[in-house]
Write a structure and sequence with these properties.
The protein is built from twelve helices and eight strands. It is an alpha+beta fold. The chain folds into three domains: about 180 residues, no CATH class; about 55 residues, SH3 type barrels (Roll), CATH 2.30.30.60; about 80 residues, Alpha-Beta Plaits (2-Layer Sandwich). The strands form two sheets. A five-stranded antiparallel beta sheet has the order 4-3-2-1-5. Strands 6-8-7 form a three-stranded antiparallel beta sheet, with helices on one face.
Length: about 375
């Protein structure tokens, strides 16, 4: 066997941990402090204690002077977003400065065992502190931006979408940084996670379908909370909640219907509250007998619509002739109402008032009837 064939490929070098990186750098101490550092080098425990106390007071000063002053300045603004950010940063900033001092203290103390583990644990606590702060701040900031109408960056219906996306991104970044701190190559973990993800995807395909449909519903926004919608399957109601898995509708019978997002995303949706404004138009079909005064019919229907409180003055109601029926001239009263949920009540009132007004005006409303003509009476026997 040749020498080229017998030579084995070199193994990849293991990833360095944070403790290894600190031990290799000798110039991390500022130059003005080098004499003091050299004097304390003979007393590592005392050196470590001085570093821990120094960084504790440094963290306290930064929080007391810098962040508290920023908080007072932000209190003068009308927005609450900056107040929320500064309040959420106090703990992770303090922890970062103090824990970094503890890392330097452990490095200076040179314990006989566990130095690398201690440093990695403290660095991991810094990452976890920022991750928890980010998870809390993401929800709070999005809620504040959604309530702030002056800054139209986030709409209320898209808050759950952005919140979930931000939290997933924070968890992924924090996990990646933790792996690097502990010197673990994340490539193998990512490959394993891909295999597990495929298996979970097949096992929970319905749940994932609802989840992705919820993303698309929040992003596309075919409806929002408070809208009245009709589905092609027959459901009609007010949207009371839009979740990542399902949408809940409250019907006029005060019955709540939960529709999976995968179903509603593929359905034909009629949004009665959509359009340039929430008003909707109702149509009242009216038939009058042939021979009636059609101008008078239009005037009566117009007067009835204008007198009804639930009918909008703008756009104004209108009457249109629609055709000649088998036994009637067909008209249609077009009127706008403020909210779709009032459609049934307004239709009821209009029908009642139209019937009464046509009777008082002597206008006949035809109905199906048959006239029997006897051409010749049979002879009596």
């Amino acid at each position: 066997m040749s020498e080229a064939q017998s030579t084995e490929s070199p193994e990849p070098a293991p990833m360095k941990t944070l403790a290894d990186s600190l031990s290799e750098s000798a110039d991390w101490v500022p130059e003005p402090l080098q004499p003091v550092w050299a004097m304390l080098a003979d007393y590592p425990v005392l050196q470590a204690a001085c570093i821990a106390v120094l960084f504790f007071f440094l963290a306290f000063v930064v929080r007391a002077l810098v962040l508290n002053n920023l908080e007072r300045l932000s209190a003068r603004s009308s927005s609450t977003v900056d107040d929320t950010i500064i309040a959420g940063l106090k703990r992770p900033v303090f922890n970062t400065i103090f824990f970094f001092g503890l890392i330097l203290a452990v490095q200076a103390a040179q314990p006989p065992f566990g130095r690398s583990i201690f440093i990695n644990i403290i660095a991991s606590m810094i990452v976890v502190s920022w991750m928890l702060a980010g998870l809390n701040l993401s929800s709070t900031i999005l809620q504040a931006l959604g309530r702030n109408r002056a800054v139209n960056l986030v709409e209320e219906r898209t808050i759950p979408l952005f919140d979930l996306t931000a939290k997933l991104a924070l968890l992924l970044v924090a996990s990646y940084v933790l792996l690097l701190i502990w010197g673990i190559n994340p490539v193998g973990w990512l490959a394993s996670a891909g295999i597990v993800g495929i298996a979970v995807g097949f096992a929970a395909k319905d749940t994932l379908a609802n989840l992705f449909s919820g993303f698309f519903i929040l992003a596309d926004a075919p409806y929002k909370i408070g809208d009245y919608i009709n589905l092609d399957t027959g459901e009609r109601g007010k949207v009371v909640a839009i979740g990542m898995r399902s949408t809940r509708l409250l019907t006029r019978d005060d019955i709540e219907i939960t529709v999976p997002n995968a179903v509603i995303a593929n359905a034909k949706i009629t949004n009665e509250s959509g359009g340039p404004y929430e008003k909707m138009r109702v149509r009242i079909d009216v038939g009058v007998a042939y021979g009636s005064d059609l101008e008078k019919v239009c005037a009566v229907l117009q007067k009835v619509a204008e007198a009804e409180e639930g009918v909008c003055a703008m756009p104004e109601p209108r009457v249109r002739a629609r055709g000649f029926g088998a036994s009637s001239v067909d008209f249609q009263l077009l009127a706008w109402i403020d909210r779709p949920e009032n459609r049934g009540l307004i239709n009821h009132k209009l029908y009642m008032h139209i019937y009464k007004a046509l009777n008082e005006s002597g206008i006949e409303i035809p109905y199906t009837k048959q006239d029997l003509y006897i051409k010749e009476m049979p002879e009596a026997r």
